[in-house]
Amino acid sequence: MPATAFPEHAWLVDLVDDLPGARAADQPAWDAVVLWIGDKMFGTIGTDGRGRDLLTLKLPPEDGEALRQAHAFVEPGYHLNKRHWNSVVLADPGAHRDLLAELVEDSYHCLLATLPRWRRREIGLLA
User: Fold this and answer.
1) Distance CA 86, CA 97 (A)
2) How many CA atoms lie within 13 A of 82 on its CB side?
3) CA distance 117 to 33
4) 24 touches 33 (CB < 8 A)
5) What does DSSP assign to residue 91?
6) Residue 38 burial (CB < 10 Å; 0-12/13-18/19+)?
7) Do the beta carbons of residue 64 and residue 84 sit within 8 Å?
8) Measured between alpha carbons, how far is 71 from 68 in angstroms, rounded to an integer?
9) What are the beta bridge partners of residue 27?
10) How confident is the chain (127 residues) per 10-residue block, as mean pLDDT?
């Protein structure tokens, strides 16, 4: 089922859906769109307690720290492990579209690298 929440960020959902083995799906209980590879989450699109739209992604700790130091709109992950998860405030996503696309792909590859070969085969990523 395609993600329908956060239509203003549909381009992010489309980007995820174009990644092999990945999908974006509504998670109504969280009021979020969750980004998946198989049954493993690599990101979310949601709203924080202040009403800001966030793209939250799993990244290597050193990459996340560098991003937070370089960009004021990148914060420790909202409601997730602050060491491995980072939230990007989507106040003006058009201004950072290339960076956001790169971060989604980095998060995808970060999780993909942790999956065992049999799991990658099971979800159609290996022949």
Assistant:
1) 16
2) 3
3) 27
4) yes
5) S
6) middle
7) yes
8) 5
9) 32
10) 76 94 92 92 92 93 91 84 84 80 95 90 77
Contact between 9 and 45 under an 8 Å Cβ cutoff? The reply is yes
Q: How far apart are CA 103 and CA 67, in angstroms?
A: 10
DSSP string, 7-52: GGGHHHHHHHHTSTTEEEEEEGGGTEEEEEETTEEEEEEEE-TTS-
**Which residues, listed in sequence order, are joined to residue 41 by a DSSP beta bridge?**
36
In this structure, what token pair is assigned to residue 45? Answer: 């699109």
Query: Could you tell me which residues are beta bridge partners of residue 24?
Result: 35
pLDDT, position 122:
83
**At CB < 8 A and 24+ separation, what contacts does 14-19 make?**
15/101, 15/104, 15/105, 16/43, 16/104, 16/108, 19/104, 19/105, 19/108
Structure-token pair, residue 61: 């700790």
